[in-house]
């Protein structure tokens, strides 16, 4: 696999960079008035509205629009910010949004029968990793000197105990009950010996048995909510961890590759009905997004500074360029002012980041079961069937083939895969993820539901 952001890259990455630049030649920057290419008649719906939340992982969408990849496919796309993940989900389900930047968990929860009642699919992964956990200055002061390297949640145990002794709950924020941010925060807390709480059937709070109370806060509101003292820390995507550093109200202590290893993050999602009704449109969207993700990770990440300028626009993320540049160029400032290289943060194409891997989706489902969102134990086949109903690599493969056949991407940019990623990053607790045996993995944690257990108002039974 190629490497990104100044850490060298292989011949394949060089070829990808060359093909991306060739494909871009003659395709000027897009804007709201840009005219779609003459191929517009080939798609069922050339005028589209796509939703997003203000996070750096919308980069493929922004690049596809601003660099003209959507227009080159005959599409006139409006990118529309949404207030929060619930509003965004409702927009996709209602059809107000044609497709959207989405939480992988939103698509998978619908497939698992615990989320939206409308069938949703994800034919494209927007990125891998991209999340951090930030603590407030108050908490960092109580913790004292932190160890070098990834910080275990065990350092919070005395702080949580002090809060409890004073009759106060220790609260942290995450962005949505089925978000990666929720699951990596829970993973981190549990690995440090603290219970983040279980979900009762139909419950969205997840506070049963909790040592630490987790609550939902929209990503852009995280810093202000922590500064107000409502929460003492949070799990969120960028730029809202580095924003805490810039505002001097707190700092991140760990990023997600060091928590559960490599994890999926956001996806490009839509209803199954939209995909069935507009197959040519979906293929056009995917071709544009693949080209955008290639551009983002091409040639050692040389395009990332330009991407940061696009994202900093108020109509997209609207954050300071310096804040955005930190994570987008592989550098992350942690507590104590230590700036560390994080080359696996926000991967868009490298390591097949844009491919909707079954194994990435299965990991989400195991965490839903671990914390009770999936109320009963499930066999391994259920996990596979559920993810296959939601993740659509067949649609991705068709778009990739068209790019190769059209000379817009090299064939070796798309290695053959069975949809199961080889996970080499170790989780903080040392537990290895085996996507082929998800039931045993989900039940194998010291803190988490075991096989056959259920969550009741009286606790885990």
UniProtKB/TrEMBL annotation:
The keyword Ligase does not apply. The keyword Transmembrane helix does not apply. One of its GO terms (cellular component) is endomembrane system. Residues 1-25 form the signal peptide. InterPro entries: NrtA/CpmA_ABC-bd_dom. It is found in: Endomembrane system. Pfam families: NMT1_2. Keywords: Cell inner membrane, Cell membrane, Membrane, Signal, Transport. PANTHER family: ALIPHATIC SULFONATES-BINDING PROTEIN-RELATED, BLL4572 PROTEIN. This is Nitrate ABC transporter substrate-binding protein. The lineage of its organism: Bacteria, Pseudomonadati, Pseudomonadota, Alphaproteobacteria, Sphingomonadales.
């Amino acid at each position: 696999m190629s490497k990104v952001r100044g850490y060298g890259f292989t011949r394949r990455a060089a070829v990808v960079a060359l093909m991306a630049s060739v494909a871009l030649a003659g395709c000027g920057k897009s804007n709201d008035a840009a005219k779609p290419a003459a191929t517009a008649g080939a798609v069922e719906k050339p005028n589209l509205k796509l939703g997003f939340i203000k996070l750096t992982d919308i980069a493929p969408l922004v690049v596809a629009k601003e660099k003209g990849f959507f227009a080159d496919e005959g599409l006139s796309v409006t990118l529309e910010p949404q207030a929060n993940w619930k509003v965004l989900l409702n927009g996709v389900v209602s059809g107000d949004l044609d497709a959207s930047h989405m939480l992988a968990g939103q698509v998978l929860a619908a497939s698992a029968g615990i989320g939206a009642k409308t069938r949703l699919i994800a034919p494209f992964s927007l990125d891998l990793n991209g999340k951090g956990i930030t603590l407030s200055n108050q908490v960092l002061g109580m913790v004292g000197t932190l160890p070098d390297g990834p910080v275990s949640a065990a350092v919070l145990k005395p702080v949580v105990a002090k809060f409890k002794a004073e009759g106060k709950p220790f609260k942290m924020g995450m962005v949505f009950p089925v978000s990666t941010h929720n699951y990596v925060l829970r993973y981190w807390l549990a690995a440090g010996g603290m219970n983040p709480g279980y979900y009762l059937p139909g419950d969205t709070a997840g506070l049963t048995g909790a040592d630490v109370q987790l609550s939902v806060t929209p990503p852009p509101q995280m810093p202000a909510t922590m500064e107000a003292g409502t929460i003492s820390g949070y799990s969120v995507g960028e730029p809202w961890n580095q924003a805490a550093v810039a505002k001097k109200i707190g700092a991140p202590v760990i990023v997600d590759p060091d928590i559960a290893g490599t994890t999926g993050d956001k996806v490009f999602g839509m209803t199954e009905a939209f995909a069935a009704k507009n197959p040519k449109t979906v293929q056009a969207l995917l071709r544009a997004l693949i080209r955008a993700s290639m551009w983002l990770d091409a040639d050692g990440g040389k395009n990332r500074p330009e991407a940061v300028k696009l994202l900093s626009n108020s109509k997209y993320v609207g954050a300071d360029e310096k804040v955005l540049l930190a994570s987008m160029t592989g550098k992350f400032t942690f507590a104590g002012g230590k700036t560390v290289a994080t080359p696996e943060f926000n991967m868009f194409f490298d390591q097949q980041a844009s491919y909707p891997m079954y194994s990435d989706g299965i990991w989400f489902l195991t965490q839903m079961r671990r914390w009770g969102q999936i109320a009963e134990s499930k066999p391994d086949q259920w996990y596979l069937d559920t993810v296959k109903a939601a993740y659509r690599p067949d649609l991705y493969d068709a778009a990739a083939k068209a790019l190769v056949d059209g000379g817009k991407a090299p064939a070796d940019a798309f290695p053959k895969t069975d949809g199961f990623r080889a996970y080499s990053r170790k989780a903080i607790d040392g537990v290895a993820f085996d996507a082929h045996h998800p039931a045993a993995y989900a039940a194998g944690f010291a803190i988490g539901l075991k096989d056959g257990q259920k969550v009741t108002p009286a606790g885990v039974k």
